[in-house]
Amino acid sequence: MLRHEPRPGRLVAGVVLVLTGVLYAGDAGGAWEIPWFVAIPLVTGGLSLAGAVAFLTGRLRRRRTAGRTATD
């Protein structure tokens, strides 16, 4: 039994933002050199991907629940 509904869009957004933070933490610690403008495509691309995943997940959930009520 699930305690809550999985939210893959939020998972994708969290992973991308954590990745961006890790990259810049490594840059601040001197492990590697990251240009400042790398965050812009990472964050915008990641949030766009998360939005698309959330949209598709919502559509699939609506479609699945509509199919259940029609047959039940």
Q: How would you briefly describe this protein structure?
A:
The protein is an all-alpha fold and 72 residues long.
Write the layout of secondary structure elements.
Blueprint lengths: L7 H22 L9 H33 L1
Give an account of the 3D structure.
This protein has helices at residues 8-29, 39-71. With 72 residues, the chain is mainly α. Helix 1 (8-29) runs antiparallel to helix 2 (39-71). The longest helix has 33 residues, at 39-71. 3% of the residues are buried. The mean pLDDT is 90.
Strand content: under 5%
The gyration radius over C-alpha positions equals 18 Å
Question: Low-confidence spans: pLDDT under 50, at least 5 residues?
Answer: none
Helix content: over 70%
Key structural traits:
72 residues, mainly alpha, 2 helices
